[in-house]
Amino acid sequence: MTQLRLFFLVLLINALVVLLYMVWNVLICKKKNRSFLLCSLVMLLCPVVGPCFFLLAWLLFRLFYFAPVDLEDVVFSKARAKRFVHAEEERERNLAPLEEAIEITEAGDLRTLMMNVVRGDIQNSLATIALAMNSEDTETAHYAASVLQNTLNIFQDNVEKQIALIRQEDENRLQYADALVGYMNQVLEQKVLTGLEQERYVRLLEEVCEILYQEGQEQMRSSHFEAISLRLLDLEDFEDCEKWCMRAAARFPNTLGTYSCLLKLYFSSGQREKFFETIGELKRSPVVIDRETLELIRVFQ
User: Fold this and answer.
1) How far lies 76's CA from each of 31, 71, 73, in Å?
2) How far apart are CA 4 and CA 224, in angstroms?
3) Comparing 15-24, 118-127, 146-155, 231-240, which segment has the lowest mean pLDDT?
4) d(CA 124, CA 120)
5) Percentage of residues in the chain with pLDDT exceeding 90?
6) pLDDT tens-digit profile of 169-182?
7) How high is the pLDDT of residue 93?
8) Residues 209, 224 contacting (CB under 8 angstroms)
């Protein structure tokens, strides 16, 4: 009988603790969320253990993890600010293609323009820099020539080093070849080298592509075939160009780059029948024609 009374006494004390906990949260702390109800339910269903658990957790938090938050630099405001970024009309009115700017800009502005160009990535601006060499302003022409020559010297040194590694049959030579194709084509397509130098480096590009084709054909992308085909077409080497176009057609039959190279080859070499035959194949294929290819077809017709 004494144990039963003790049990009911514990339940009564536990219920009073739960009640005090709820009153404290509602009236003193004025909590508007309902999380304390869940805690109260746990303490009510788990006498002694529940309150001890939450009390111990609160003590540990206060002793080891609690720290005051510094809100001195924080501003809370319900005001919402909308910012509108207006178009830079003055700047946009002054925008013009770099090639036109070189022709019409005054000497002082032209020098500033060239400085802005060379501060960025000039690898894709070599053809424009080459145009600046014909400027009437001697300082601009000299500066453009120096920048262009320095860039081409770096290009030639890099190509020679990579070619030497590839010819040594290094275990990573296919990776070198893969990277070298894109690097060389980026410069060769701008046609800033002299005639003999351009032909020499196109032949080196063909050598690299041949190694990649023979030993790692699965690593060759459509862009590789397109690069060597178009560079050979620049040299008017129609025979080798057609060889690579046929390889591209076998490897990537339904690719715009393949059809584009074939059309350019037949257009340049005057092969009218093959040109229209390729157009027919292109129309029957699922390939989407871009504006450049469509314009080529219109010109030939």
Assistant:
1) 21, 10, 10
2) 90
3) 118-127
4) 10
5) 16
6) 777 888 888 889 99
7) 47
8) yes
Q: Concatenate the DSSP letters of all residues of 46-99 into one string.
A: STTHHHHHHHHHHHHIIIII------TT-----PPP-------HHHHHT---HH
Helices (H), ranges, 120-237: 126-132, 138-167, 173-188, 195-215, 222-234
Give residue 233's Cα distance to chain centre.
30
Which residue type sits at 130? A
- The encoded tokens of residue 168 equal 């040594």
The model's pLDDT over 34-49, given as tens digits with 9 standing for 90+, comes to 666 777 777 777 777 7
Element (H, E) at 262: helix 256-269
Which candidate, 63, 39, 62, 35, places its Cα nearest to that of 51? Answer: 39
Six token digits for residue 142: 């000299």
Q: Are 126 and 151 within 8 A, CB to CB? A: yes
> How far is residue 296's CA from residue 301's CA, in Å, rounded to a whole number?
9
In whole angstroms, give the CA distance from residue 7 to residue 282: 90
Angle at 201 between CA 199 and CA 207, to 5 degrees: 105
Angle separating helix axes 256-269 and 238-251, nearest 10 degrees: 160
How much is the pLDDT for 242?
92
Distance of CA 83 to the CA centre of its chain: 29
Whose tokens are 């390729």? That residue is 278
Which amino acid belongs to residue 174? L
What secondary structure letter does DSSP report for 284? H
The pLDDT mean for the chain works out to 77
Instruction: Tokens for 274, please give them.
Output: 């093959």
What tokens appear for 238 in the block? 């129609």
Rounded Cα gap, residues 183 and 154, in angstroms: 12
Q: What would the two tokens of residue 214 be? A: 């023979």
Query: Within its chain, how far is the Cα of 297 from the centroid?
Result: 32
